[in-house]
Amino acid sequence: MLPSCLCSLRRLGAGGPQTPPPQCLQPGGRGLLVGGVATRRNHAPWAGPAPRLFSGSSKSRLGLASGLECDLATNLVGQPLVRQQVMKGVKEFLQNPSPAKPLVMSFHGSTGTGKTYVSSMLVRHLFQGGLRSPYVHHFSPIVHFPHAEHIEQYKENLKRWIQGNLTSCGRSAFLFDEMDKMHPGLIDVIMPFLGPSWVVYGTNYRKAIFIFISNAGGEQINEMTLDLWRAHRDREEISLQDAESAISKAVFENPQSGFWKSGIINEHLIDFVVPFLPLKHHHVKQCVVNELVQQGLEVRQGMVQEVADSIPYFPEEEKIFSSTGCKTVASRISFFF
Ligand SMILES: Nc1ncnc2c1ncn2[C@@H]1O[C@H](COP(=O)(O)OP(=O)(O)OP(=O)(O)O)[C@@H](O)[C@H]1O
After folding, report:
1. How much distance in Å is there from the Cα of 114 to the middle of ligand 1?
2. Considering only the top CATH level, what class is 49-276?
3. Which residue, 21, 67, 178, 217, could crosslink 250 as a Cys pair with Cβ 3.0–4.6 Å?
4. Residues 77, 83 contacting (CB under 8 angstroms)
5. What atom in ligand 1 is closest to the CA of residue 109?
6. What ipTM was reported for this prediction?
7. Distance (Å, rounded) from C-alpha 214 to C-alpha 265?
8. Residues near ligand 1 (Cβ within 6 A)
9. Is Nucleotide-binding among this UniProt entry's keywords (predicted)?
10. Can you give the residue ranges of every domain in the chain?
11. How many angstroms does the Cα of residue 153 sit away from the middle of ligand 1?
């Protein structure tokens, strides 16, 4: 049973106007890691309380989780397993004032299935300002770690960046996009931050959130979903265990993957491996409707059908699952409107 629909509250500013986060804000607290180099030092020791959103009771933290749950239920199309897994992780984590380890989730699936969408939804509910919050750190290999020859420097910078920001504010989130494009070996530098150890370099890192996003395992998930469809079974019947082992195998066997031979996988540091399933035609139609509503445009069924029909589907013959998920929906609407 869903909680009463509170999801519009934060979007409308239920947390009040966008007040600057009073706590955890330290000089140099916003900065960018450009080309693997922090543009501002961010290591100021900070003894203040956690950000407002995290400093309340476990009840008020669970209120944030309810908002997320509602948003996922209302806007995320065709991914009940994702909803279930993400909410399980977030609720358990927020409920516990003293978590045993950071929350580490890894999102896998083919393009346009909602990985980035869900991660930004998650941080929007948990952090005022969402992706723009100074406590949310978003890394993209192409932007932040572009040159393989600088990997040692990147490792040092990344470790210092995480350490500095977690020393300043333990309730921070770190998003690693396009893990399949990350240089193998780089990500292992953050291993000490992902485990249950109480203190690393003098700080408790158990309250952080780490999210990895990648296409790795997407083909295997699609294949498993297709097999279910051929067996006349629901795509949601995909077993989490099977999906997890297929994903682990796929990332582990790919020498291009950021997780290749990674201790993060070996040491089982990921708490939730979240498979994003390929979307069907009717899901794409729902994405079109959502997009029209969001853009304030009139929803005309004929046009919804046309946009959904214009997207490529696989397998070639039966055309069951969208090859690009809902990714191109927004850009296509202008052609048909
Ligand atoms: N399951 C979904 N439910 C609702 N909207 C979706 C879903 N999947 C994708 N979308 C829409 O498509 C857009 C692109 O999706 P998103 O960026 O999350 O894809 P992705 O899985 O991260 O893809 P990629 O692997 O290419 O980065 C989203 O901003 C959202 O509007």
Report:
1. 3
2. alpha beta
3. 217
4. no
5. 21
6. 0.99
7. 14
8. 75-79, 109, 111-117, 215, 287, 325-327
9. yes
10. 49-276, 281-336
11. 32
